[in-house]
Amino acid sequence: DIPDLHSVLDPYFPIGAAIDPVDVLNASDIHSALIKKHFKSLTAGNFMKPDALQPVEGNFVWTNADKLVQFAEANDMLVRGHTLLWHNQIPAWFFTDPADSGKPATREQLLARLETHIKTVVSRYKGRIQHWDVVNEVLNEDGGLRGADTGSKWKGIIGDVDGDGYDSDYIELAFKYAHEADPDAKLVINDYNLESSNAKLNGMAALVKRLLAKGLPVHSVGFQMHISNTAPSIEQMRSAMEKIAALGVKIQSTELDISIYSNSTESEKPVTDDILLEQAKRYRELFEMYKQGAQKGYLESVTIWGMADDGTWLDNFPVKGRKDAPLLFDRQLQAKPAYWGIVDPS
Ligand code: XIL
């Protein structure tokens, strides 16, 4: 029998996994025992996003989210809620006029919907979901706020409500609503490429500073950490996290996976021993960095975006037909060298 991942890591931080689909939690499913054995925290890979929780305005669907929260409680695990405001996986009705679906929603309509969605969801799990990804991927690669040209309608419709010259009000209000619904929940702003793009990292730093200066309860910044076997370097990732931590917030690694591909032009390749060892070295070095971050007091949690390679979202993404192998267990649910890199780093 192999060591439990979470027993190895509990002294440093809770180790989590994204769960998708919810059926992997069924006692009869081959994944469920492994999830219980190795992980201390769970995140819904998809079924707590707005399109899953409120597909039709006013019709909340709780079945899957309830099941995850109950499973976590029954097994002494934490839950990270993901996610309240995003530009993807959100139903079109949010942004359209209820009287005329050909017309956009007004600022007042969209704000009312944002408030209702966030308050309904957060208060349902008050005290039971410890961390919420309040807003997800609100930054462009250049560090500016994502707008209509990069797929988000939030900023354009809501705009600058308080007249302070910044149109980040939808973000500010999302934090305010979430905090009102559960004052004890820790609130997170989550994004990708923070560890690889300086412009985006600087944009995050500026945004977080502004939110904190306004007294908003931003507790941590989530680094998604969809990285590859080759980049970025450990030192670059460390310095990115420390730059944000210096602002007085915590850091969570929220969606870690380590792709065997360096870019989207690489075509499918066999998963050789060399690749697996390279990946194991990478997981080992990264987790040593995380442990140091925990000892320094800023790294709060690490969630891996899936458990075994049979369920990775990177199959067919970003390249259709290409299979990846980014996780700690293989398609037969056997521990990979990557797992041993974490458990036995010597
Ligand atoms: C992904 C899911 O894993 C996929 O199943 C789904 O098709 C698309 O979304 N950043 C995020 C996550 O914040 O919500 C995304 O999850 C992966 C990228």
From TrEMBL:
This protein's UniProt keywords: Carbohydrate metabolism, Glycosidase, Hydrolase, Polysaccharide degradation, Repeat, Signal, Xylan degradation
Top-rank taxon, per record: Bacteria
Protein name: Beta-xylanase
GO biological process, one term: xylan catabolic process
GO molecular function: carbohydrate binding; endo-1,4-beta-xylanase activity
Domain spans labelled GH10: 1-345
Residues shown, of full length: 369 to 714 of 1156
Protein family membership: Belongs to the glycosyl hydrolase 10 (cellulase F) family.
